[in-house]
Amino acid sequence: MRDINFYFSGKLFFVLTVTAIVILTGHSVFAQTADSTLVDTLHNQLIYPFRDVTGNPYLDTLNQSPLFLKDPNNIKQEIIYNPKTNSYEFVTKVGDFEYRTPTTLDFEDYQNLQMKRSIEKYWQQSTQTTGTNKGKRLIPKLYIKGKAFEQIFGSNAIDIRPQGSAEISFGVLSNFRDDPSLDVRQRHTTNFDFNEKIQMNVTAKIGTKLTFKAAYNTESSFNFENQLKLRYTGTKDDIIQSIEAGNVSLPLNSTLITGAQSLFGVKTKLQFGKTSVTAVFSQQQSETKNITVQNGAQQNSFKLTPLDYEDNRHFFISQFFRDHYEKALSTLPIISSDVNITKIEVWVTNIGPATEENRNIIAFTDLAEGKQKEIFNKYVHALPNGVIPTNNSNDLIQRMDTAQLRNINSVSTYLTGDPLGIGRNNYFVSGQDFVKLETARRLKPSEYTVNKKLGFISLNTTLNQDQVLAVAVQYTVIGHDSVFQIG
């Protein structure tokens, strides 16, 4: 078995064997042979036409795309000035070989080309140095005219300073596993790998009173590390001293009542003469825990539900007992149940060595189910007066040959055939409708407990996922003289 992993991310690699120079156009494909003649090899139009590099630097900049690979390092471009014609000649070489026709630009076109390159270089440098040097900013200050704006916010200037970075990586992960036990389609899997990283910090000021701060990082360990805060600050003579929205805190100087941290909401501070009022309406994003250490050990209180540790241990003998469970417990401490279990045998799949209590058994899912809606197999039918669960609650056993059921060697073939005589096979599925257990182990009474009134058993140990539990039981019902039996 071999595991072969391929990972491609961000780059494309090609291996080319050059035997002829191929010229691709939007209409045809030509190959240049040794006698310098062009031979039309394809007359059909290309599905995805593209333009080849012409060697003209001005035209080639108009056909740029991130999907096109850059020229290799062995391709050099030289610029030769011709003083007679006042023009510039662009020559593209591979070593000493000129593999493209030289391109000539006059002085005006060359000047426009250089101007375009200078502007692009300037914007690239400005973007990279934004916020690093004083005076170089991505967003300049804005000034709003009007006295009303200045009186509300304290100044007429708006200052926004964003900082951060964004990174996106995209790749393809291909995994090939040469495992004969797997299906052919499962041996080779291909998945896309897409990751993004964002780190952003924004500080904005509107005048001198309103401040906005935001910090967001996709790689932060906790949510409260991403901050968002809007604050308005008044003067010392204003009633509204401050209004905060977003991530706020409420520190208190008292030792009896501690303040809350990591709050998200609205906080206001008002001043009425010498009276100060602070109000907070928020949601707490943090949690406080108390740890008690005694004798060098930490003590914690925890709560567990029965489902957390009692899985696969408690089983009802039949659906009949499950349907009457709540009704029987409605008059506690008296259990109102007419059932009394007199004898029970519990069998499980033996996963250890053989013991004295080993038998070959056949367990049925629908045995003793007397309601049609509770019978799993649609070919088994409930019988009249089969509400109390017994072997005669449905026609599962009555329509079968008992001698065939007791032959452990051929019982599986018999059950997956046509045991009910309806003219078709495989309507009894092994592991779903029945289970054949060879050398099943009978549990000792000390290995389980049975509630004789409510009709359920509780195992001392958890039943494994690959084990089968089978039950045979006899019980009596108040008002009936006969003994009812299941199994």
Could you characterize the architecture of this molecule?
The protein folds into three domains: 122 residues, no CATH class; 143 residues, no CATH class; 179 residues, no CATH class. 11% of the residues lie in helices and 39% in strands. The protein is built from eight helices and 26 strands. Strands 1, 9, 10, 11, 12, 13, 14, 15 and 16 form a nine-stranded antiparallel sheet that branches. A hairpin with a 6-residue loop joins strand 25 and strand 26. The longest helix has 22 residues. It is flat, with a radius of gyration of 42 Å.
Brief synopsis:
By secondary structure, this protein is mainly beta.
Which short descriptors sum up this protein?
487 residues; flat; 9-stranded antiparallel sheet; mainly beta; disordered N terminus; single chain; 5-stranded antiparallel sheet; 3 domains
Describe the biggest sheet? 9 strands, antiparallel
Structural class estimated from helices and strands = mainly beta
Give the amount of beta strand, in percent: 35-45%
- N-to-C span: 48 Å
Mean pLDDT: 78
Residue ranges: pLDDT <50 for 5 or more in a row?
Answer: 1-43
Q: Describe the global form.
A: flat
Q: What is the C-alpha radius of gyration, as a whole number of Å?
A: 42 Å
Task: Give the helix/strand layout.
Blueprint (H helix, E strand, L loop, with lengths): L1 E8 L11 E4 L4 E4 L5 E5 L14 H4 L14 E8 L4 E8 L2 E2 L4 E4 H22 L13 E2 L3 H7 L3 E22 L5 H4 E19 L3 E8 L9 E7 L6 E11 L9 E13 L2 E10 L7 E3 L2 E3 L14 E3 L2 H5 L1 H4 L10 E10 L9 E7 L37 H4 L5 H6 L17 E9 L5 E4 L4 E4 L9 E9 L6 E3 L1
